[in-house]
Amino acid sequence: MSTRFHAFTGKTQNREPHIEVRDLTVAYGDRVVLSDVSLTVGRGDVFVIMGGSGSGKSTLLRSMIGLIEPSVGDVSYAGHSFTQSGPSERASFLRRFGVLYQQGALWSSMTLAENVGLVLGEYTALSPEEIREVASFKLALVGLSGYEDAMPGELSGGMQKRAGIARAMALDPEILFLDEPSAGLDPVTSRRLDDLILALRRSLGATIVVVTHELESLLSIGDNSVFLDNETKTVIARGEPRDLLENCLDPKVQAFLRRSQEAAR
């Protein structure tokens, strides 16, 4: 934790640590994007990374899955360093991850079943028939049974996000990383997606890391969280989101968590 301030720490879950980020700094030349970020995600948590625009939320997530290499610091999973791992060990780590990117990132020229089955064809010895069966099952888990042969362009935004989650679950990952899953969705669809995330956590026992700025979502699904400040580029509050709403006195955190209430006045 940075020595420049004392971050607010609210109530937290006492689960076994699954992910640990220690003293992480990401910089491009002289431009610091993240500074001295530390956090712990408990096994089975829905962990929320929140903050305003430009605070480094997506950069933190990408650093956690190896798409961005930190300038300083370490990311570890179940006590084993991901940052310091070699190519073969890192590949083993990555097979335990499932990722939903902001725009869904589905291949537009492939059906939903083909999108979900792509990773199965690459990383398993399943036959085409078995791959199709698994893809159908994953799509059914997210409420898309019967859409195996649909093209991404034929779906609504919410359905595309659910299809992206089905693809992220293809290899039965231990950890799901979801980058702005509710972005651009109407409130009803967003709420249904939140319900799906919680249902998947219950049924799969996965640890879920969510980047989001959607208030209703982060308050309804988050077991624990960190708040990234876009000025200092580091964590200024951590804890269960509703606890931060009620007890954190930092004006930046309060402005972020109460902005919908202010707009309604």
Tell me what you see in this structure.
With 265 residues, the protein is α/β, with parallel strands linked by helices. 37% of the residues lie in helices and 24% in strands. The strands form 2 sheets. It has a 7-stranded mixed sheet with strand order 1-11-10-4-9-8-7. It is globular and about 55 Å long. 40% of the residues are buried.
Set down the secondary structure blueprint.
Layout: E1 8-9, E2 17-28, E3 31-42, E4 46-51, H1 57-64, E5 72-77, E6 80-81, H2 87-94, E7 97-100, H3 112-123, H4 128-141, H5 157-168, E8 175-179, H6 187-204, E9 207-211, H7 215-221, E10 224-228, E11 235-238, H8 241-247, H9 251-257, H10 259-264
Helix pairs in contact: 3-4, 3-5, 4-5, 6-7
What is the overall number of helices?
10
What would you report as the Rg, rounded to the nearest angstrom?
A: 19 Å
Strand content: 15-25%
What can be said about the biggest beta sheet? 7 strands, mixed
Q: Can you give keywords for this protein?
A:
265 residues, alpha/beta, 7-stranded mixed β-sheet, 4-stranded antiparallel β-sheet, globular, disordered N terminus
Report a brief summary of the structure.
It is built from 10 helices and 11 strands.
